[in-house]
């Protein structure tokens, strides 16, 4: 296993992120699923310069992106988007695309269970076929019930993966597992060798080590099933706007150049624009918690 991180949680140049994570012992990055933001040649050069490899990317399934959409043209555009993320990862020599099939923040279905299942399976099959052509593995990620109504548990993600192909995998996230699963460790065991990626945040969605999750036991269970992929940092720090705030200086107050879609995605997760110091501390704390357990 090795330590990786997402980079969608803060708007900053990729070079700044790579320099930051290198000093704390991260080996790879799961790059934000917005291919238009990354020139492949420049990004490959930056990764090489900082000695960080691309592990993969996560789909930012926001707005009209939805593989289970009732509208056929919307589903087709969503498939094209996922394919573009897969292509980006392939061109960056990455291995994984974490797929969130339905729109994050959408909590009410538009059709029957049978209709949606047919649509999402067919769309995911098309994405999976493209991933195979590009040499990239596809992993379905379930989110908690407050972010999506469709896939919340490991068993549900596995059901979609099974309907697509025995080679389609799943990605699990400790934060979501803590909300949705009867037993976090049994959910990891259920995924078994289909587990292709594992996202890391504590129960409060701060850095690993700042909540009550049992990280030694989580990592031990991953070792038990023979998992040898990334533990990908994905803290999404909740903002406290009251006098009780534990981190009063966590929110960036100066203007930041960030695409409005990315800002909305961050805010929809209960977070905000984070200061350099707070973000750096969260990266460091995750590394200090996880690295001793996997080395």
From TrEMBL:
Name of the protein described by the UniProt record: Xylose isomerase domain protein TIM barrel
InterPro entries: IolE/XylAMocC-like (IPR050312), Xyl_isomerase-like_sf (IPR036237), Xyl_isomerase-like_TIM-brl (IPR013022)
Keywords: Isomerase, Plasmid
SUPFAM superfamilies: Xylose isomerase-like (SSF51658)
Domain of life per record: Bacteria
Ranges for domain Xylose isomerase-like TIM barrel: 19-239
GO molecular function terms noted in the UniProt entry: isomerase activity
């Amino acid at each position: 296993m090795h330590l990786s991180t997402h980079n969608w949680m803060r708007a900053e140049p990729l070079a700044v992120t790579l320099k930051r994570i290198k000093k704390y012992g991260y080996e790879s990055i799961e790059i934000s699923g917005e291919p238009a933001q990354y020139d492949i040649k420049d990004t490959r050069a930056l990764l090489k310069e900082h000695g960080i490899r691309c592990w993969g990317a996560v789909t930012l399934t926001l707005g009209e992106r939805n593989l289970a959409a009732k509208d056929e043209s919307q589903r087709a555009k969503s498939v094209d988007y996922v394919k573009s993320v897969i292509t980006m990862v392939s061109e960056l020599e990455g291995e994984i695309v974490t797929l969130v099939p339905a729109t994050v923040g959408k909590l009410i279905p538009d059709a029957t269970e049978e209709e949606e299942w047919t649509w999402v399976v067919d769309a995911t099959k098309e994405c999976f076929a493209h991933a195979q052509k590009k040499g990239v593995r596809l992993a379905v990620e379930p989110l908690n019930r407050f972010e999506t109504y469709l896939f919340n548990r490991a068993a549900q993600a596995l059901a979609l993966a099974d309907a697509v192909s025995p080679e389609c995998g799943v990605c699990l996230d400790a934060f979501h597992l803590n909300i949705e699963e009867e037993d976090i460790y049994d959910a990891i065991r259920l995924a078994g060798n289909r587990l292709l990626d594992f996202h890391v945040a504590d129960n409060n969605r701060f850095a690993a080590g700042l909540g009550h999750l049992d990280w030694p036991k989580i990592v031990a269970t991953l070792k038990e099933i023979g998992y040898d992929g990334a533990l990908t940092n994905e803290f999404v720090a909740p903002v406290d706007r009251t006098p009780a705030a534990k981190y009063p200086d966590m929110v960036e107050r100066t203007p930041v150049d960030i695409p409005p879609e990315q800002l909305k995605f961050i805010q929809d997760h209960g977070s905000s624009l984070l200061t350099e110091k707070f973000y750096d501390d969260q990266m460091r704390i995750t590394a200090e918690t996880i690295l001793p357990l996997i080395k």
